[in-house]
Automatic annotation (TrEMBL):
Membrane-traversing stretches: 29-50, 94-115, 127-147, 159-183, 195-223
Gene3D superfamilies per UniProt: 1.10.1760.20
The protein's name in its UniProt record: Cobalamin biosynthesis protein CbiM
Record bears the keyword Transport: yes
Compartments, as annotated in UniProt: Cell membrane
């Protein structure tokens, strides 16, 4: 989830503070060392993901990646209201991980953020690396592996394991990403750490609930219609296709 606009001026009377904080960081909010470090991490993530996708994934997965990217991009255009006069929208990292796995899912999220930054000015260009790290690396990788841990603990092939894992991972990925974003802003000297944490985490705890609900609805629909499309598809679920589109 990502806030469209998070107004914190009414809570923190700091004249020098920009009145808006959001998960998509704009240009000018991060220091050069933070920008450089996050760009290195983002480029490394994309390079490794490309290599792993080429090695492990079937060619038939590529269309699914395109459909997933289109769905996430379209879903992010739909904002839902939260208390306080602001709104949030789907981030989609955990959904991409559940559907495509961490490697292909990370590539999909990186493409979505690049298109948003270059064509829609949603997030800055110089800080694109940070946005990819926060919402791609943490949202997709972190979300997927937390989902995977919970799913396997509750039953790899059970609907309960998949849905509980999805819900917890989706919510957690949003909150953790907001915490990392707050630290990046504080290290850059943009805003004091406690102010950034209070503003970001407070709102994203609620936004994460919306993220979890939307992700669970989407994954539940896939489970009922095409469970073979899920990454590490359940072996006991009815398979409606001749072959899975994702590796097992």
């Amino acid at each position: 989830m990502d806030t469209a606009l998070l107004s914190i001026s009414s809570f923190f009377p700091l004249h020098w503070l920009m009145p808006q904080l959001a998960m998509h960081i704009p240009d000018g909010f991060l220091s050069f060392p933070v920008i450089l470090l996050t760009w290195v991490l983002a480029i490394a993530l994309i390079a490794v993901s490309l290599n792993r996708v080429q090695e492990e994934y079937q060619e038939r997965t590529v269309p699914l990646m395109g459909v997933c990217a289109a769905f996430i991009f379209a879903a992010q255009m739909i904002n839902f209201p939260i208390p306080g006069g602001t709104s949030g929208h789907l981030l989609g990292g955990t959904f991409a991980g559940v559907l495509l796995g961490p490697w292909a899912g990370s590539l999909v999220m990186a493409v979505v953020f690049i298109v948003q930054a270059t064509l829609f000015q949603d997030g800055g260009l110089t800080v694109l690396g940070a946005n990819i790290v926060n919402m791609g690396l943490i949202g997709t990788f972190g979300g997927y592996y937390l989902y995977r841990t919970i799913r396997y603990a509750l039953g790899r092939d059970s609907f309960r394991g998949i849905i509980v894992g999805t819900a917890i991972a989706a919510w957690t990925s949003v909150v953790v990403a907001s915490i990392v974003c707050a630290f990046q802003l504080a290290i850059s000297g943009t805003v004091p750490l406690m102010v950034a944490l209070s503003a970001m985490v407070f709102w994203h705890v609620m936004i994460g609930i919306g993220e979890a609900i939307i992700t669970v609805i989407a994954v539940s629909y896939i489970w009922r219609t095409r469970p073979d499309l899920l990454y590490k598809a359940p072996r006991t679920a009815p398979i409606n296709a001749s072959r899975p589109l994702s590796p097992r």
